[in-house]
Every structure is written in structure tokens, then in C-alpha cells.
Amino acid sequence: MDNPVRIPSVHRSIHRNLAAATLLVGLTTSSPAETFHLSLEDGRIAARQAVLSGQFELARDFAQALLNANTDDRAALIVLAAAQPQLGSGREGRLAGARAYRLSDTPEDRYEAARLTALAAANEERYTLSQVWLRRAAANAPDDRAYRQTQTDYRGIRRLNPLSVSLGFSIAPSNNVNGGSETELNIIDGLPFVGVLSGDAQALPGVSATADVRLAYAISRGPAHRTSVTGRAYARAVWLSDAAHETSPTSENSDFGSQRLELGLRDERRLAEGFVTTQATVGSSWFGGVHKTNYINGILSYGQALTPQTRAEVTSEVQRTDLQGRSRRSNLRRTLSTKLAYRAESGNRTTLQLSHEEQISDSPNERYEAVTARLSYAFADPVGPFQLSASLGASRTHYADYRIIFKVPDGRTDTRWFGSLSAVVDTLEYAGFVPVATLGVQDTQSNVSRFQTSEYSLNIGIRSSF
């Protein structure tokens, strides 16, 4: 049988049973305190009733008395997790909720504890920690309704949080991890000689893995604007297959690894008819362990809803790239793109993107002009267990002054076709993250065979469903 627990009373009462304890929930604390005896189970019931009826001080006193008798009393910790934030003690509530989570044996209990801990962290204005606990709650949601509520709460906390974190991880087997040529011969239309490509310039099969971390911290925000400091760290690693080592025996995995670091400032503003986004970024890139470039990038974008179902966006981008190494030079790239997105009544989305890009350079082989078109389609409803989307596109890039010893007649022209099919498997969701598989294909035809390539890959990654 439970030992009795001594709990401060908030009112004189001649009753010493559960009915008396329940009655005291609604009374004030104006009378001198005394003590009365309850069993532990009765104390738990009274504590929960107190917190549910908004008597948070009384609930806290009940819970603390229960914890004096048993420091691992999960029911008391749950009451503290709910009551303390209402009394201005968010930290104590969060710690109590975290302990209750560790003591929980069922998904339902873990869900309850995680949500209370998330609420306590939000009351401390520790929004990122609150989001972590909401993801734990999502992983233990007892039903779809609870999951959707947690998803809604997560989005609400995200709007309050000045810090935004985006994590991207993927792994992709490919027949061409280095973007190499599909032939070992370098044939140039219009020139009477043939070159032989080195092994590392040819298509090498293998596996690549990427990690992409993006951060944004709002330094100013209001109902119609948000200004953020941004950062990005990107890395790509490559593992060559045995066949790749046969083609290029001297190549190592690290030769094709790349990294990128960026720091920027972004401003987003809502106008009467649309949204304006401006962004400035500085960054550096590495390839094969060697520092390759420093760059500065600027973007100006305007988006507006044309109809309730149609949205248009225009983006202008300028980037100056300073190439490092022995042959230092600078390139200036300018891009103008448009996007038109349509959402049907079924919820299916169709997006058309067009862009024009040109690069100015002191090097004739790096001066080019390109046009690209891309059409995307995303289904609103799952197709079987998969949430599907697909895209198809083409680009034409012309290097008017390209030369290999001699100038290439009419310049170098690359025509690229590309497509992808992505499937999100919602049934494998965990903590708000879902796996994504993307089958990608691309083929490039060029009058300089060194740049005639084809690739097919299967990219497996993870993305947030919140």
C-alpha cells in the first residue's frame, strides 16, 4: 500500500479524503496553510485535476510533494511540466517534462511528455529546442489527428523562431560522378585532329554523398518584412567504383570531393501586390582539396499572385567569381529567370521556368550564353504509397570564342536534356522527416566531344515534412 504524502492545504477542512482534496482545487490561498494526508494515487489525481482547472500553484505543490516521496513519479513530473511554465518557471517545467519523457514506456506517454516539454521550451523563448521536442512528439503521435496538430504547432513555433535551420543529406549511385565524357576521344567538328582524353576526364562510375546545412537568423522582422543573416556549409564526397579505377588508375576519391562555405544577408518584404526578396552572399569553394574560387553574389526577386491559383516570379542574379591558383582571373555571370506556377483545383501543381544566362570572362573558353527551360509537375494526392513529382527540361549553351589551340568553327555548342522523377515515401516518416528517392537522367550533345556526356543516377535523401 502507498505511503501517505503530506501536501500543504490552502484552506481549513475537516475532510481528509479525495473528495476534500478535489474540493480544494477551486479555493483560494487566503487562509493559513495546514497539512492533510492523501495516498500517492489520490495525490496524483488531485494534482492533475488542479492543473486542468488552472490552479497551477496548487498543482505545483501537489507535484512537489509527490516527488518528495518518489523522485521518479512520472505523473507528478507531467503536472510540473504543465504547471511551471504557467507560473513563469519555464526551465523547471522543461526539465520536468524531459525527465517524464525518459520515464515514459508507451508512445502515448512519450507524446504527452514531449509536447509539454516543447511548450515549456517555447515559454523560455528557446524555440529551436521546442522544435526538437515537437519532432519527438511527432515520432510518438498516437494518431493522425495528433500528428497534424503537432505539425501545425511546429509551423507556429517556426514563425516565432528567429533561427531557421535547413538540413539536407543524400547519397546517389551514378554512372558519371565526375561529369566526364562518354568517349575517350576528343573530336572537334570542323578541326582536322583528334585528341585522347585522360582517364579522369572520362565518365567514372561510383557513389556520391552530399551534406547541405543552411542557417538563417532574423535580425529584424515585422508583419511585412524579415531581414536575416544567412550561412551555408556544403560538402560532397565521392567513392569511385572498381571500374572507375580501371579507367583512371591514378584517380583518388578525394580528387572529386568539393566543399562550399557562404555568408550572406537576405531581406524579404511584402508589398501591396507581392513579395520582394534581395540577397547578397560571399563565399568560397574548394575542389579536390584545393581552394578554387571566391565569389560574391546578388539576387533581386519579385513574386506576385496573378490569380488565386497562379503565381509569377521574376529573378535577376549577378555573380562575380574570382578563380584562385596560378591562373587568376575573374568571371561575371548574369542571369534573368522567370517562373510561372499554377495550382489546379485538384491541388496538382504545374511550374514553368525560363532563364537566360551569360558569362563575361577574360578567358575565351569561359565566355558563354545559355538559355534553359524547365517544366515541373507535382501531384497533390499520393499515387499508391508515393508522393510523386516530375520534371523535364532542356538547355542550350554557346561558347562563341571557344578554342583548343585553334578557334572552334562557329564556337562550341552544348545541348542538354534532363529529367527527374521524385518519390516521397510518407509512410516511412519519422519525427517529421521523410525519405525521398529521385531518379535523374541527363544527356549532353556537343560539337566538342569532350563535353558530350550522359548520366543516370538514383539520389536517396531526407527532407522535412513540416
**Percent in helix:** 10-25%
Strand content: over 45%
Classification by helices and strands? alpha+beta
User: DSSP helix count?
Assistant: 9
Count of beta strands: 20
Model description:
- There is one protein chain.
- With 466 residues, the protein is of the alpha+beta class.
- The protein has two domains: 5-159, Alpha Horseshoe (Serine Threonine Protein Phosphatase 5, Tetratricopeptide repeat); 164-277 and 345-351 and 362-464, no CATH class.
- The chain is built from nine helices and 20 strands.
- The strands form four sheets. Strands 3-6-7-8-9-10-11-12-13-14-15-18-19-20 form a 14-stranded antiparallel barrel. A two-stranded antiparallel ribbon has the order 1-2. It has a two-stranded antiparallel ribbon with strand order 4-5.
- A hairpin with a 6-residue loop joins strand 13 and strand 14 (368-378).
- Helix 2 (40-52) runs parallel beside helix 4.
- The longest helix is centred in the N-terminal third of the chain and has 17 residues, at 107-123.
- This is Surface lipoprotein assembly modifier C-terminal domain-containing protein.
What is shown here, in short?
The chain is of the alpha+beta class and 466 residues long. It has helices at residues 18-23, 40-52, 56-69, 74-86, 90-102, 107-123, 127-139, 144-160, 242-247, and strands at 5-9, 34-38, 163-174, 185-187, 194-196, 206-222, 225-240, 258-270, 274-287, 290-307, 310-323, 329-343, 349-361, 368-378, 386-399, 403-404, 406-407, 412-425, 433-446, 453-464. It folds into two domains: 5-159, Tetratricopeptide repeat domain (Serine Threonine Protein Phosphatase 5, Tetratricopeptide repeat); 164-277 and 345-351 and 362-464, no CATH class.
